[in-house]
Amino acid sequence: MAVAQDYDALLLDLDGTIWEGGRAIPGAVEGVIASGLPAMYVTNNASRAPEAVAEQLRSIGLPAKDSDVLTSAQAAIEMVSDRIPAGSKVFVLGSPSFRALAEQAGFVVVDSADDAPIAVLQGHSPEIGWAQLSEAALAIQRGAVYVASNLDTTLPQERGLMIGNGSMVAAVVSATGVVPDSAGKPGPPMFFSAAAKLGSSRPLAVGDRLNTDIAGGNAAGMDTFQVLTGVSGYHAVLRAIPEERPTMFADSMGALLDDAAELIPAAQGGFQARLEGSTLVLSGGTSESTPIQSLRTATAVAWATDTSVQDVRAEGEYATRALEQWS
What we know:
The protein is α/β, with parallel strands linked by helices. Helix content is 32%, strand content 22%.
């Protein structure tokens, strides 16, 4: 049975899953549409307003409404609203749309630690620099509640992995010694909220990054589907800790139409795998075998033990060819 037929909604990551720097990833749009499932786009990227994200989704061919987007900035506003009264002063270290969300929630957005904000909200923005980071640090040193939209250290773009919000947060943490609460993935609240908005009782969480998308979906008790089009690659999947292991994984979103039994860790494509100490040895395969089949074969063995795989070695022509394409 096709994967999509076993669920009633998709909870989709964006960066590295649907697009890279706004450019659609091959097969992503087609896979989402062909699934026939309602979708909610759940993104840790807090740099743009939900309506702007929805507009861009429509521009690449996805029929997204503004209400189909849930950003970590929205989640951060919800989190801080539970902790401080409406009308409070807050310092927003982020994009203009993040500031607008705070104002719409009834907070007074200030630009200096000297204005005595009682909370600091930090989300990704390419415009953040030393001055803004320093104001945030001063406010936190004076007792302000500190909430980050997300802690992703990198952001997938067309040229590669750029600096993410978590790396900017690290500068403030270094200066203050205060670690923020994070509203975004891998915490489960965004997944619960997204499923509730769709009225979904059996959603499938889809993403590219093990320690946010997959870990968050797992923490929410949902099945998870990883595409290897973004941050976490073949070797990361093989070495994934239990909390970050996807239910299924594939090279592209087009696999949503494949039989679910073909996407779970299991021996495939004529490959075999065994452990020799901390080395996983991959062998077998045929001229028609694919690298993703070799990975599913390898993970079936690696995940079945407590052994931490330190190295991977191939034996034979087809296994060697597959392993060469893991990077």
